[in-house]
Design a protein that fits this description.
alpha+beta; Purple Acid Phosphatase, chain A, domain 2; eight-stranded mixed beta sheet; six-stranded mixed beta sheet; 16% helix; binds 2-acetamido-2-deoxy-beta-D-glucopyranose; binds fe (ii) ion; Purple acid phosphatase; iron; metal-binding
Length: 455
C-alpha cells in the first residue's frame, strides 16, 4: 500500500514537472506596501503661483502624429495654450486647449487642461511649455517613427501602480531602463478610491508622482476597476468621473464612441485597448467596435498586434480568479482568428506569463474545456505588479496549470522591445534590493511573419 502511494506520488510529481511551467522560488521581502505620505518629495507642488502640475501626455491620433498634453492649474484657470517647437529656444508653434473641472462629493478639482498638438513630424524631439510667466514649465517628448513594418520600438509595461514606496521603486526602475519609449499602462492608476470618500486628493498626488515620466513620454491608458469611482453612498453615481476628466485618449480617431476602448498604431505595433469594466457582451458598443476593428489591422503595415486590458483572461493566482472568464468566452475566438501576438493585463498584483494557448474548442456539449497549446493564440502576460498599497498577490493555485509558463509574486515592470517584423525581445524585471533584476525573458516571434513556437 505504502509503495502504491509512493508510486502515485512520483507519478504526480512527474506530471507537475512535465507541465514545464515555472513557479519562481524567489521570495520577496514580505513587508507590506505603504503609501507615501502626503509630504513625500514626489508629491511636491511645482513652485510659482498657479504653476501647472500633473503634466502628462498620450498619443492623440491613430497614427502617432499627434499628442494630447494635459495638466492641472490649482488656483485659477490660467492659460490653456501649449507653446511647442523642435528647438528649446524657439517654441514657434502653439495650440489652444480646453479646460474642465469636476466635483466629487466634497472635493473640487483644479482646472484640468487638455490640449491636442497635431501634424507633428515623425521621429523628432519636441519641446513644449505650459503655464504662464515665471510659473511656466518646459518639457519635451519624442514622436514615434513613421508607422512601418520593420520599425524598432520599445514599450514599457506597468500596471496597478498606486503610490506606495514600492510604486516609486517600480517607476524608478522603469526610468533607469534606457529603452522604454512609451508606456502601455494596463489600468488601476491612483487607488484614490481606497481612501475615505474616494479622497480625490490622491488623484492629484498620483498625477504629481508620475509626472517625471508621463510629461516626457506617452502613457497609453487602460481603465481598471480602481478608475470606476462609483460611490452611491456619497451621491456619486457616474462611473469613471475622475478618470475621464483627468485622462483623455484618442478614441474618436479609431471610430470608438467611448474612451474606454480604442486603438492606436505606433511604429510597427497596432495596439487595441479593451475595457474590462464596460459592457462587452454580444451587441454592446464595445463588442461591435472590436468585431469591426480586427479586420482593419494590416499586418503588412503593423506586424505586431498587442491587446491591453485590465482583468487577465488567464490567471492562476488565488486572486481575482476567473474574473476574466466572461471576456475570454466572448473575445478569445477573435484573438485566435486574428493572431494577436500578446495580451497584457494587470489587476492581479503579481507577475505571470502563459504559453501560447487557447480554450476555444468548447461548445457546451463537446467537453473540450481545457486550454490547449495553440500557435495562433496570444501569449497572456499579467503585470499587475506595480506596487500599490493592496500588497502582493502571493497565493497561487497548485499545481501550476500547464498553460502557465512562469509566475512570481514580486513587484516589477516589463519591456516589450520590437526589433523588426519577426522578432521582439520581452523582459520582465522584478524589484529587488534596489535593483531591477531580469527575472523572465522571451524572444517573441511574430504570429504572422514568423509563427514558430517560442522556446
Ligand atoms: C522616489 O524615487 C526617487 C527616484 O529614485 C527619489 O528621488 C525619491 O526620494 C523617492 N521618494 C520616496 C518618497 O521614496
Ligand atoms: C497593407 O499595408 C501595406 C504596406 O503598407 C500596403 O502596401 C497595402 O496596400 C495595405 N493593404 C491594405 C488592404 O490596405
Ligand atoms: C459541439 O461539438 C460536438 C462534438 O464535436 C458536435 O457533435 C456538436 O454538433 C457541436 N454542437 C454545436 C452546437 O456546434
Ligand atoms: C494540459 O494538460 C491537459 C491534460 O493532460 C491536456 O489536455 C492539455 O492539452 C494540456 N494543455 C497544454 C497547454 O499543454
Ligand atoms: C530581426 O531581428 C532579429 C533579432 O534582432 C534578427 O536576428 C534578425 O536577423 C532580424 N531580421 C532581419 C530581416 O533583419
Ligand atoms: Fe484591478
Amino acid at each position: 500500500m505504502a509503495r502504491l502511494v509512493l508510486a502515485v506520488m512520483l507519478l504526480l510529481n512527474a506530471a507537475i514537472l512535465c507541465s514545464g511551467g515555472i513557479t519562481s522560488e524567489f521570495v520577496r521581502l514580505q513587508e507590506s506596501a505603504v503609501d507615501m505620505p502626503l509630504h513625500a518629495d514626489v508629491f511636491r507642488m511645482p513652485p510659482g503661483y498657479n504653476a501647472p502640475q500633473q503634466v502628462h501626455i498620450t498619443q492623440g491620433d491613430h497614427e502617432g502624429r499627434s499628442i494630447i498634453v494635459s495638466w492641472i492649474t490649482p488656483s485659477e484657470k490660467g492659460s490653456s495654450t501649449v507653446f511647442y517647437g523642435t528647438s528649446e529656444n524657439k517654441l514657434d508653434q502653439h495650440a489652444e486647449g480646453t479646460v474642465t473641472m469636476y466635483k466629487f462629493y466634497t472635493y473640487t478639482s483644479g482646472y484640468i487642461h487638455h490640449c491636442v498638438l497635431t501634424d507633428l513630424k515623425y521621429d523628432r524631439k519636441y519641446f513644449y511649455k505650459v503655464g504662464e510667466g515665471s510659473a511656466a514649465r518646459l518639457f519635451w517628448f519624442k514622436t514615434p517613427p513613421e508607422v512601418g513594418p520593420d520599425v524598432p520600438y520599445t514599450f514599457g509595461l506597468i500596471g496597478d501602480l498606486g503610490q506606495t514606496f514600492d510604486s516609486n521603486v517600480t517607476l524608478t526602475h522603469y526610468e533607469s531602463n534606457p529603452g522604454g519609449q512609451a508606456v502601455l499602462y494596463v489600468g488601476d492608476l491612483s487607488y484614490a478610491d481606497v481612501y475615505p470618500d474616494h479622497d480625490n486628493v490622491r488623484w492629484d498626488t498620483w498625477g504629481r508622482f508620475v509626472e517625471r515620466s508621463t510629461a516626457y513620454q506617452p502613457w497609453i491608458w487602460t481603465t481598471g476597476n480602481h478608475e470606476i469611482d462609483y460611490a452611491p453612498e456619497i451621491g456619486e453615481y457616474v462611473p469613471f468621473k475622475p478618470f475621464t476628466h483627468r485622462y483623455h485618449v484618442p478614441h474618436k480617431s479609431s471610430g470608438s464612441g467611448s474612451p474606454f476602448w480604442y486603438s492606436i498604431k505606433r511604429a510597427s505595433a497596432y495596439i487595441i485597448v479593451l475595457a474590462s469594466y464596460s459592457a462587452f457582451g454580444k451587441y454592446t458598443p464595445q463588442s461591435e467596435w472590436l468585431e469591426q476593428e480586427f479586420p482593419k489591422v494590416n499586418r503588412s503595415e503593423t506586424p505586431w498586434l498587442i491587446v491591453l486590458m485590465h482583468s487577465p483572461l488567464y490567471n492562476s493566482y488565488n486572486y481575482h480568479y476567473m474574473e476574466g472568464e466572461t471576456m475570454r468566452v466572448m473575445y478569445e475566438p477573435l484573438f485566435v482568428t486574428y493572431k494577436v501576438d500578446v495580451i497584457f493585463a494587470g489587476h492581479v498584483h503579481a507577475y505571470e506569463r502563459s504559453y501560447r494557448i487557447s480554450n476555444v474548442a468548447y461548445n457546451i456539449t463537446d467537453g473540450k474545456c481545457t486550454p490547449t497549446s495553440d500557435l495562433s493564440a496570444p501569449v497572456y502576460i499579467t503585470v499587475g505588479d506595480g506596487g500599490n498599497q493592496e500588497g502582493l498577490a502571493s497565493s497561487m493555485t497548485e499545481p501550476q496549470p500547464n498553460y502557465s509558463a512562469y509566475r512570481e509574486a514580486s513587484f516589477g515592470h516589463a519591456i516589450f522591445g520590437i526589433k523588426n517584423r519577426t522578432h521582439a525581445y520581452y523582459n520582465w524585471y522584478r524589484n529587488q534590493d534596489g535593483n531591477a533584476v531580469e527575472a523572465d525573458s522571451l524572444w517573441f516571434f511574430n504570429r504572422v511573419w514568423n509563427p514558430r513556437e517560442e522556446s
